[in-house]
Write a structure and sequence with these properties.
By secondary structure, this protein is an all-alpha fold. The chain contains five helices and no strands. The radius of gyration is 19 Å and the shape is elongated.
Length: 150
């Protein structure tokens, strides 16, 4: 069986741009960590409340901040230094996650802390994603001789 080159994933940006490769790896790890955090918070909410409705409200609580921050994240990336915006959003998400861990380890967590910090993490991740998306064109060199398959 013969495959056309246009059907395979183009991995050349990972080879030609070390900065893009680092950002891609970091984004992948951050995405995995973010999803693990969401699942962990949902399991913890279920353990605290025994309510599947309370668990589903974690996703609902993160939805509005995610939408709003995603809309404004692109604007922030255009108005300010993209690298700085990405770093600040990652730091906010990390600090909120660290606070979640500290509250849980000290048994000081409440359902409202879990909802609030989930909202902050969702907003920070949305700003970070919009910013990283805006950074990509600057990391991958474009050649005029290169053609995109249609």
């Amino acid at each position: 069986m013969q495959f056309s080159r246009g059907l395979l994933i183009d991995l050349s940006p990972l080879r030609t741009s070390p900065a893009f490769a680092r950002m891609w790896i970091g984004s992948t790890l951050a995405g995995i960590g973010g999803q693990l955090t969401i699942v962990t918070v949902m399991l913890h909410v279920f353990e605290l409340t025994g309510s599947t409705f309370a668990v589903s409200m974690i996703a609902v609580a993160g939805l509005l901040p995610m939408i709003l921050a995603g809309l404004y994240g692109g604007m922030l990336a255009d108005a300010f230094d993209r690298r700085r915006v990405a770093l600040i959003s990652a730091t906010v998400a990390f600090l909120a996650t660290a606070l979640l861990a500290a509250l849980t380890w000290t048994h000081a967590e409440t359902i409202w802390w879990l909802y609030g910090l989930s909202m902050i993490i969702a907003a920070a991740n949305s700003v970070g994603m919009a910013t990283r998306t805006a950074i990509v064109p600057r990391l991958i060199p474009w050649s005029a001789s290169r053609r995109h398959p249609r």
